[in-house]
């Protein structure tokens, strides 16, 4: 029984503890439900405060504002259109620019409003999303609250049942043991349920914590959204004020434009009135003028008609005038032409006359002239009696010189004698008339004749410091050609050749050793030419120097001893001058042949042999042939033996006809050379002494003595009278020489 009592007490205690626990649980649940309610209220409050209603309201407000703005924009656009129309009406308005600026500003504002609108739409979307999320949270909260209520309900039901059971147990103590057991069983179950409930409670508390967290986040988001919305609102307000300002400005502008327009209209009107008045006045004046002008118009009409008539007649008049002018001009031209023709005819006649006079002058002087030049005594002449000068001159006659030979004085008369002191310049002065005649189309030959060392090369070539005839002649030709350049075109060309052992060589050619032939022109003119002979065109002294240099180099390379070689060959410089008279079309060709002959000394007699003898024979023969030709020409023989040597054959054209020849006989004054000097002077005198005149049979018979014969024919001591035979006939001495030569058989060329 005591045991039962104890058991009952323990059960009661346990029951009390359970009741306490239940009470604590109940109070806990009450607190949780209170908290939940608070949370629900808070949620409600929050909902009312933010999302749902406020955001929507705000969105609606924004939409309304947007709509208002749109309306306003439309109105502005309408106004703008109106303004544009007015602008079109008033193109000259000064406010156009400002209006354009305003339009631009308006566009910018529109763009900004557009952007704000887009931003607003974004915000609206965000608010919508947040509202959705809030609704979800609410739904979840509602669910958990309902679950909680159900659990509470179930637990209270159970408590009630337990209390009822305890009460019934109290009422039935006999059954206590069983009941205690049942209670024990029941209390275990209750304990388990309590545990579950506790865990459930904990879970719910966690949920609540999470929800709070979410709420907090949402609150923050809401705050930021509110901030953004506030910003946007401020921006929109700013845009609104800007729009208002622009609108105001636009209105002002429009007002100003309106005023301007009105003013302009008024001004135009007043001006128009004034102008109208003036026009009226003018009209009145014009009317009166018209009345006075009518007679003037009548006279003008009359004038006009007469002018018209004149204009109509003008082409005829003009034609007439032109015809007469043309006739006059034609006549004048004809006159000028005839004058020109007359002048040309006179000029040609004068030209012919000049040529004739020149020819006559030359004829009077003689086509063949012989000069003598005595070189000074040089170092080469040595010292002593042999180097003493054997030549003396006549103080009154520059054509005479005396030679002391073997104690006898022999006098010679030439066309001109140059003493040793005569300069190159002086010599050339006597020669230049011949040179210039070459420009007029004459052929000229200048020969330097004499023994080696007598000064032939000095006279022809000279030195670079003191040039001889060759260079001076070309210089003179250049200057003459230049002075005639106004009317004439001239071309000057040169060839340089040498004749050695009767072989003609081109010293300007590529193959100087090649022997050239002299041929008849194939055109049947009878002219001679040398195929392959090089001709260089020259225009300046530099050109000539180059040509001489070239010829000299060729001559040097062709021989071992130049001095010797040059004394054994004839050196020829052939200058050709071709001219064209531009006014008459007349063409001339003149040739100037400058020949430095081989030494005339008599080598053959000094016992020379071999090639030296051969050279001497060639020289002898060619010089004799030259003498023969000159003699034949001067005595006008029918036959001139040009073909007897290469030299005469080559110069045939330049020796015959109107050609002019100058023989420059060079002599050495030295006593030791007196014999050679004598020979040279005899040669000169004979060339010169042949009298010009009709061709005679006698003259035809006379031939030129060879070099040896010249020496044999020593003059008597009678002097000048002997040296110059009487005119008209060959001298008696010449005839006797001829006879002597014929009988002795010495006339034949020296056999080679
Ligand atoms: P060639 O040609 O007849 O053999 P050169 O002309 O060679 O003779 O003359 C021989 C020398 O005499 C040269 O040294 C030359 O300078 C000199 N000589 C010739 N004539 C004169 C002169 N008139 N005045 C000065 N020196 C002269
Ligand atoms: Mg010489």
UniProtKB/TrEMBL annotation:
Task: Give the binding site residues for ATP.
Answer: 450-457
Q: Which SUPFAM superfamilies match?
A: P-loop containing nucleoside triphosphate hydrolases
Q: Where is the Kinesin motor domain?
A: 367-690
Report membrane topology: Peripheral membrane protein
Checking CDD domains in the record gives:
KISc_C_terminal
Any single biological process term in GO: microtubule-based movement
Compartment(s)? Cell junction, Adherens junction; Cytoplasm, Cytoskeleton, Microtubule organizing center, Centrosome; Cytoplasmic vesicle membrane
Q: Which GO terms describe its molecular function?
A: ATP binding; microtubule binding; microtubule motor activity
Report residue spans for region: Disordered.
Answer: 704-752
Coiled coil (residue ranges): 1-28, 59-172, 215-267
User: GO cellular-component terms in the record?
Assistant: adherens junction; centrosome; cytoplasmic vesicle membrane; kinesin complex; microtubule
Q: Which UniProt keywords apply?
A: ATP-binding, Cell junction, Coiled coil, Cytoplasm, Cytoplasmic vesicle, Cytoskeleton, Membrane, Microtubule, Motor protein, Nucleotide-binding, Phosphoprotein
**InterPro entries (alphabetical):** Kinesin-like_fam, Kinesin_motor_CS, Kinesin_motor_dom, Kinesin_motor_dom_sf, P-loop_NTPase
Question: What family, per the record?
Answer: Belongs to the TRAFAC class myosin-kinesin ATPase superfamily. Kinesin family.
- Described function: Minus-end microtubule-dependent motor protein. Involved in apically targeted transport. Required for zonula adherens maintenance.
Q: What is this protein called?
A: Kinesin-like protein
């Amino acid at each position: 029984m005591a045991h039962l009592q104890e058991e009952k007490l323990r059960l009661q205690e346990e029951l009390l503890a359970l009741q306490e626990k239940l009470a604590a649980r109940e109070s806990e649940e009450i607190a949780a439900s209170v908290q939940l309610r608070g949370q629900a209220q808070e949620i409600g409050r929050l909902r009312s405060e933010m999302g749902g209603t406020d955001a929507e309201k705000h969105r609606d407000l924004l939409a309304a504002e947007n709509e208002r703005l749109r309306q306003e924009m439309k109105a502005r656009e309408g106004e703008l259109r109106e303004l544009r129309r007015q602008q079109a009406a008033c193109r000259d308005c000064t406010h156009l620019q400002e209006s354009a600026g305003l339009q631009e500003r308006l566009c910018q504002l529109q763009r900004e409003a557009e952007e704000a609108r887009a931003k607003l739409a974004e915000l609206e979307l965000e608010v919508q999303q947040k509202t959705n999320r809030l609704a979800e949270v609410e739904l979840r909260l509602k669910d958990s609250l309902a679950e909680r209520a159900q659990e509470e309900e179930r637990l209270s039901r159970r408590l009630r049942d337990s209390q009822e059971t305890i009460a019934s147990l109290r009422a039935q103590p006999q059954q206590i043991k069983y009941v205690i057991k049942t209670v024990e069983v029941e209390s275990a179950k209750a304990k388990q349920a309590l545990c579950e409930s506790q865990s459930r409670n904990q879970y719910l508390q966690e949920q609540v914590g999470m929800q709070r967290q979410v709420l907090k986040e949402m609150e923050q988001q809401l705050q930021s959204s509110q901030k953004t919305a506030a910003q946007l609102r401020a921006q929109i307000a700013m845009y609104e004020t800007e729009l208002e300002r622009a609108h105001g400005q636009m209105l002002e502008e429009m007002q100003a434009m309106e005023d301007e327009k009105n003013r302009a209209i008024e001004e135009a009107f007043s001006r128009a009135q004034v102008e109208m008045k003036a026009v009226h006045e003018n009209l009145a004046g014009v009317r009166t003028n018209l009345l006075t002008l009518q007679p003037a118009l009548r006279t003008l009409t009359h004038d006009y008609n007469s002018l018209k008539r004149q204009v109509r007649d003008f082409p005829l008049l003009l034609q007439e005038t032109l015809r007469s002018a043309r006739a006059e001009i034609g006549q004048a031209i004809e006159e000028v032409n005839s004058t020109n023709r007359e002048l040309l005819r006179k000029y040609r006649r004068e030209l012919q006359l000049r040529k004739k006079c020149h020819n006559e002058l030359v004829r009077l002087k003689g086509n063949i002239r012989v000069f003598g030049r005595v070189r000074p005594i040089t170092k080469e002449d040595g010292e002593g009696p042999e180097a003493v000068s054997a030549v003396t001159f006549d103080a009154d006659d520059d054509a005479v010189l005396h030679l002391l030979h073997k104690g006898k004085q022999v006098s010679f008369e030439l066309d001109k004698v140059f003493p040793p002191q005569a300069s190159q310049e002086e010599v050339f002065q006597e020669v230049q008339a011949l040179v210039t005649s070459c420009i007029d189309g004459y052929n000229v030959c200048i020969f330097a004749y004499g023994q080696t060392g007598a000064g032939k090369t000095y006279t022809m070539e000279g030195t670079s410091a003191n040039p001889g005839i060759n260079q001076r002649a070309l210089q003179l030709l250049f200057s003459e050609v230049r002075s005639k350049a106004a009317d004439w075109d001239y071309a000057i060309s040169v060839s340089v050749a040498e004749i050695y052992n009767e072989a003609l060589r081109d010293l300007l050619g590529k193959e100087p050793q090649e022997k050239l032939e002299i041929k008849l022109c194939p055109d049947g003119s009878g002219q001679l030419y040398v195929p392959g002979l090089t001709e260089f065109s020259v225009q300046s002294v530099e050109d000539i120097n180059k040509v001489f240099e070239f010829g000299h180099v060729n001559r040097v390379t062709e021989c071992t001893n130049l001095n010797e070689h040059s004394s054994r060959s004839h050196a020829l410089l052939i200058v050709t001058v071709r001219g064209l008279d531009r006014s008459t079309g007349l063409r001339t060709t003149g040739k100037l042949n400058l020949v430095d002959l081989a030494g005339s000394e008599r080598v053959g007699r000094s016992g020379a042999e071999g090639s030296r003898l051969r050279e001497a024979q060639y020289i002898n023969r060619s010089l004799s042939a030259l003498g023969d030709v000159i003699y034949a020409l001067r005595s006008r023989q029918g036959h001139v033996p040009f073909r007897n040597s290469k030299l005469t054959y080559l110069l045939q054209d330049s020796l015959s006809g109107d050609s002019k020849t100058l023989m420059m006989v060079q002599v050495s004054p030295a006593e030791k050379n007196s014999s050679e000097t004598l020979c040279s002077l005899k040669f000169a005198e004979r060339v010169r002494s042949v009298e010009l005149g009709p061709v005679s049979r006698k003259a035809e018979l006379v031939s030129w003595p060879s070099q040896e014969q010249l020496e044999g024919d020593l003059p008597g001591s009678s002097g000048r009278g002997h040296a110059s035979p009487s005119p008209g006939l060959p001298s008696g001495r010449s005839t006797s020489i001829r006879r002597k030569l014929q009988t002795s058989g010495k006339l034949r060329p020296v056999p080679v």
